[in-house]
Amino acid sequence: MLERALKGSPRYYAWIGFLMLVIAAGAGAWIYQLMEGLTITGMSRDVSWGFYIAQFTYLVGVAASGVMIVLPYYFHHYKPNKHMVIFGEFMAIGACVMCMLFIAVDVGQPQRMFNVMLHPTPNSILFWDMTVLIGYLTLNLLCGWVCLEHDRMRLPHPKWIKPFIIISIVWAFSIHTVTAFLYQGLPGRHYWLTAILAARFLASAFCSGPAILLLVLKVTEKVTSFQMPRNAVRTLTKIIAYAMVVNMFFLALEIFTAFYSNIPGHKHSIVYLFAGVHGHHELVPFMWTFVVMAVVSLTLLIPPRFRDNQKLLPWALAILVVATWIDKGLGLLIGGMNPTPFETITPYWPTGLELLISAMVYAIGALIVTVLFKIATSVKQDLEQSQALPCGCSTEDHCDCSSEEEAPAADEAPAQEAEAAA
Amino acid sequence: MKNNRRNFIKFAGLAAASLCIAPKAMASSGHAAPVKKHADGLNAKHWAMVVDTRKLNSEEAIAPLAAACHAIHNVSEIDTKQNIKWLWASPYEECFPEQQNPYMDDSVKERMFPMLCNHCEQPPCVRVCPTKATYQRPDGIVAMDYHRCIGCRYCMAACPYGSRSFNYSEPRKYLDLTKLNTEFPTRMRGVVEKCNFCVERLSVGKLPACVEASNGALTFGDLTDPESDVRKVLRENYTIRRKPSAGTEPSVYYII
Question: N or C terminus of chain B: which is more exposed, having fewer CB within 10 Å?
């Protein structure tokens, strides 16, 4: 099936070529890091985890998010998601690979990484994190590939794959919970030492991940004949809106606990992030940008009038993605490492080389997602599933496209039907 | 007969699998390699240190201890944020951030305190290490296997005392190779290192280098032995430990 990724338009090849260039540049930087050591990063004795681990944390959320499409389809038999499932699974594959690469570029002795498997240490959460990540990658590769292969051959999905799909749904929650445990079990880091961290991770994953997936699928719609069913988009947008509300609610809970209890350790990180301490205000503009963007994205996602406006939606999602990235891909890690164990502040900022290596990992992820989505959309095109109709609907929308003017009215009807059925 | 061939293949597969597992199972069956112990080696059930900050309380007093420790263990002197420290001096608020008050006696407030790995009874670094590169010895010392360490720096995130350093670059670049202590190894790039309570000196009957250089301001001994020096000093003086709320039970005690 992979050969389907080899036939594409010049635009497709230009994009692949661009990704290859970024990967080559990043690989050069990575080879330099392998020669010189992590000294080329902005990390220090006090801030010993940086941009790489922060990106890993953010991307675990993206990997877990595909489940927000898979779960409604398999657990609630929500039919509009039927042809979206494969994209959630393929996105998870790309995200899992990126997560592992971010760990690989972060360790000081990468050639010894197998020590984690050669000397399995169940008391270390890192061991479990590796286990759940590899497990989730395998499950998604298996489920995604087998289902798509059977689709291509116009065969029903085999019965034996169903248990693996069910396991993968439960497993998705585990990868983000375990990643949160990586942080939240550390006695000296107050910002992470909170029982709600895993819940916060899941909430932010279930808004940011599907938002990224929807944005990528919007681009896919532009460059292929694939078209998402409108009801699936509407449902996913609702999930994103609710998850973002929960995400912000959890943040408010943290702030209440820290400031009403008035315990200095719990306040320090939050004060450092949002107001600055000891003359260090590095993250203050970012954190307030996060707050403003979070409010804007919620304003655009909560009222149905705005949420169902497909022109506005990409903007709302993009703003949400940036907001959650600042919160989790930047603030969570630096805010947790700072204040240091000595209650001092050691500024951290990624270096250019660090960013270049990170760009390589993101480009590898984008390449994987592009190739997998290319295969999936070409199979869907053969099967004439979820294809764009002249009026802009999808073939799954049961929309009557005989008259262009009636199209908006027509796509309201299935929505009402679906709601009535529910 | 058809069944026979299937059974044979099953048996062959199982046998091959067990051959793969057997050596590992044998190796992990608990037979330690025979080690000949040094006749004068110092032994304890739980090593601990008491710092008398009435005697040892200024940058000038602590510097020779750090110098002795760093020289003997080939610790690199790096003049950046990516530095390596096994033993160093810090003010009260960095050593005991949760135990300060604004009206403290000036003589205490202005003291400098020696900081080092606490060799905790419940070490978070050992709990998080994914390869057992950081481990706790039966005598309480939290030790490191530099050849096992993958450099994930999880132990650094977990240590509530900032006692660990990472070799971001090649450490030998920062060492005076003519003054190396050839009795102790240097480290390679990409591994974490820290104070080891001079475990290599204890095994040949010597006290830790800092204790030897401290003129009696540091006391070292077995915490489980009521007659030991440390227990005597702990009985006679009021002591505190760093960050008691972290629940790590440090083995380094400070007389204030």
Answer: N
A231 in Cβ contact with A247 (< 8 Å): no
Mutate to test the interface with A, among B150, B156, B188, B243 (most CBs of A within 10 A): B150
Which positions in chain B touch A127 (Cβ < 8 Å)? Answer: 130
Q: What is the rounded CA–CA span in Å between residue A218 and residue A222?
A: 7
Q: Are A91 and A97 in contact (CB under 8 A)?
A: no
Put simply, whether A105 touches B (Cβ < 8 Å) is no
Helices (H), A153-229: 161-184, 197-223
Residues of A in contact with B24 (CB under 8 A): none
pLDDT digits (tens, 9 = 90+) for A263-293: 988 999 999 999 999 889 989 999 999 999 9
User: β-strand B165-166 against B192-193: which pairing, if any?
Assistant: antiparallel
Can the peptide bond before residue A339 be classed as cis, meaning omega within 30 degrees of 0? yes
On whether any CB of chain A is under 8 Å from the CB of B157, the answer is yes
For residue A133, CA distances in Å to A66, A97, A101, A141 come to 14, 9, 12, 12
Alpha-carbon radius of gyration of chain B = 23
Ramachandran angles phi, psi of B106, nearest 5°: -55, -35
Q: For the whole model, what pTM was predicted? A: 0.89
Report how far residue A142's alpha carbon sits from residue A132's, in angstroms, rounded to the nearest whole number: 15
Judged by DSSP in three states, A185 sits in: coil
Q: Which residues of B touch A265 (CB under 8 A)?
A: 98
Q: Are A334 and A348 in contact (CB under 8 A)?
A: yes
**Residue whose token pair is 């794959």:** A161
Residues B122 and A316: their CA atoms lie apart, in Å, by 48
Q: How far apart are CA A402 and CA A400, in angstroms?
A: 6
**Closest Cα partner for A115 from B155, B130, B156, B26?**
B130
Q: Chain A partners of B188 at a C-beta cutoff of 8 Å? A: 109
Q: Which of A39, A116, A340 sits opposite B82 (nearest CB)?
A: A39
The torsion angle over the Cα atoms of residues B17, B20, B26 and B32, rounded to 10 degrees, is: -150
The whole-angstrom separation of Cα A318 and Cα A339 is: 31
DSSP state for residue A368 in the 8-state scheme? H
Write the pLDDT tens digit of every residue in A1-24: 778 888 888 999 999 999 999 999
Whether B149 sits inside 8 A of A109 (CB atoms) is yes
ipTM: 0.87
Contacts 24+ apart (CB under 8 A), B180-183: B180/B74, B181/B71, B181/B72, B181/B73, B181/B74
Q: How far apart are CA A108 and CA B146, in angstroms?
A: 12
- Residue A280: φ, ψ to 5°: -105, 115
For the segment A356-387, what is each residue's pLDDT rounded down to a tens digit?
999 999 999 999 999 999 999 999 988 888 88
- Distance, in Å, from the CA atom of A85 to the CA atom of A78, rounded to the nearest integer, reads 11
**A131 vs A171: CA distance, rounded Å:** 11
B108: exposed, middle or buried (Cβ count in 10 Å: 0-12, 13-18, 19+): middle
Residue labelled with tokens 């590095």: A282
Residue matched to tokens 């990643």: A179
Cβ distance A116 to B131 less than 8 Å, yes or no, reads yes
C-alpha dihedral sign at B240, B241, B242, B243: negative
Reading the block at residue A139, the tokens are 């499950």
Closest B-chain CA to A344 = B94
pLDDT tens digit string along A187-244?
989 999 999 999 999 999 999 999 999 999 999 999 988 989 989 999 999 999 999 9
